[in-house]
């Protein structure tokens, strides 16, 4: 690596001389522009719009325009700015690392000790380790005063340049102000999906697919020339991408869980959510019923082990069917017997009632006859 800047960290009255190196680099394949007719490379020229001449870089100055007025600033005038001449990384605060907003991080630099004795460098590193804090610094680099964070990576001090507060835009979206209801079932399933994807971060396990495929395309074009077949190279038609099916949120969560678990044993949405139907959110049965219907259609393909087990199931199904038929027949007979018994009991009750009513009728008739007999006397 080549140092891009030299200076010193001002830690109180302690000076720590350092060399600054870019800690990151771009791994993208470099492409340039050409004329599609003859392959000639496209070049850009710095041409003056007044005299139409091509201008050398050494003859170019910088300018600022405001309200129709232009101010030209020469290189010497820009170099005269005091901050530009400073080669000091000034420590101004020590803060807890969790107070830094990651969005403010810009570019990282390695700092190497630049003195015969690295004692001051090690002392500052130990101070950051012992206090578990990050040093907030200010420094000037490439015609710009910068804010930075000084922290430790392994045994090296790393200078992380930060954006100024007014360089970070405020997120103000009217769509986020809408009243959105999330059911308990949806929250439980999303938490289950997060758990199924939980892991320790390992950057080396990820690949820049576009750059890999771009290299594959370049090599195929070198080998095949204009007869290049992109479908043969990538296994898909040129420009073809994944076309995601538009499904509802609950269905998407369930399919995601089933895909992660692989065996298709994720169960119904109610099982995944621990039996919670989400009524607490006021969604009711109208939301739950479509989910149950869709869950039948969303069953994933069975695994090989499931296929092997399914071969033993027909006999069990027949036995179960026969048993079910027998149970149904027994239930029908029992129902008929109960109906007959009920009818018999009803008939006996009616007969008894009729028998009891007959003597009462005779008695009433006898009384009426006696009354008529006594009348003439």
Which CATH architecture of the domain at 1-27 and 83-166? Beta Barrel
Strand order, biggest sheet?
Answer: 1-2-6-9-8-7-5
Number of DSSP E strands: 9
CATH class of the domain at 1-27 and 83-166: Mainly Beta
User: Uncertain segments of ≥5 residues (pLDDT<50)?
Assistant: 263-377
Cα-atom radius of gyration = 43 Å
Strand composition percent: 15-25%
CATH topology of the domain at 1-27 and 83-166: Ku70, Chain: A, Domain 2
Tell me the series of helices and strands, N- to C-terminal: EEEEHHEEHEEEHHHHHHHH
Secondary structure tally, helices: 11
Distance between the termini: 148 Å
Nearest-integer average pLDDT = 75
The coarse silhouette is extended
Main sheet: strands, sense, barrel:
7 strands, mixed, barrel
> Helical content, roughly?
40-55%
What's the oligomerization state?
Answer: single chain
Organism: Pseudarthrobacter polychromogenes
Pfam families: Ku
Function: With LigD forms a non-homologous end joining (NHEJ) DNA repair enzyme, which repairs dsDNA breaks with reduced fidelity. Binds linear dsDNA with 5'- and 3'- overhangs but not closed circular dsDNA nor ssDNA. Recruits and stimulates the ligase activity of LigD.
InterPro entries: DNA_bd_Ku70/Ku80, Prok_Ku, SPOC-like_C_dom_sf
């Amino acid at each position: 690596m080549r140092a891009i800047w030299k200076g010193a960290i001002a830690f109180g009255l302690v000076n720590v001389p350092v060399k600054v190196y870019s800690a990151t680099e771009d791994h993208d394949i470099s492409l340039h522009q050409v004329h599609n007719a003859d392959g000639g490379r496209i070049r850009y020229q710095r041409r003056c719009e007044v005299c139409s001449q091509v201008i050398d870089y050494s003859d170019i100055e910088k300018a600022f325009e405001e309200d129709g007025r232009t101010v030209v600033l020469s290189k010497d005038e820009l170099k005269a700015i005091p901050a530009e001449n400073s080669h000091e990384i000034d420590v101004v605060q020590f803060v807890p690392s969790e107070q830094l907003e990651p969005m403010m991080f810009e570019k990282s630099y390695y700092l190497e000790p630049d003195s015969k004795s690295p004692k001051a460098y090690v002392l500052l590193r130990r101070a950051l380790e012992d206090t578990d804090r990050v040093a907030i610094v200010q420094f000037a680099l490439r015609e710009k005063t910068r804010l930075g964070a000084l922290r430790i990576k392994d045994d090296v001090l790393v200078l992380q340049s930060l954006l100024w507060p007014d360089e970070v835009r405020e997120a103000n979206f009217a769509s986020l102000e809408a009243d959105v209801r999330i059911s308990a079932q949806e929250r439980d399933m999303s938490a289950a999906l997060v758990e199924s994807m939980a892991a320790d971060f390992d950057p080396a396990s990820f690949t820049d697919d576009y750059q890999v495929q771009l290299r594959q395309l370049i090599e195929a074009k070198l080998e095949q020339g204009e007869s290049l077949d992109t479908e043969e190279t990538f296994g898909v038609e040129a420009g073809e991408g994944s076309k995601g099916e538009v499904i509802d949120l609950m269905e998407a969560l369930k399919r995601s869980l089933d895909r992660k678990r692989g065996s298709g044993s994720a169960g119904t949405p109610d099982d995944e959510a621990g039996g919670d139907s989400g009524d607490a959110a006021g969604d009711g049965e109208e939301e739950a019923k479509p989910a149950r219907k869709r869950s039948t259609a969303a069953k994933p393909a069975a695994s090989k082990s499931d296929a092997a087990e399914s071969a033993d199931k027909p006999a069990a199904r027949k036995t179960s069917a026969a048993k079910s038929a027998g149970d149904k027949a027994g239930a029908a007979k029992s129902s008929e017997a109960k109906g007959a018994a009920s009818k018999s009991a009803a008939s006996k009750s009616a007969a008894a009632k009729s028998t009891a009513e007959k003597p009462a009728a005779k008695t009433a008739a006898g009384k009426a006859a006696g009354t008529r007999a006594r009348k003439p006397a």
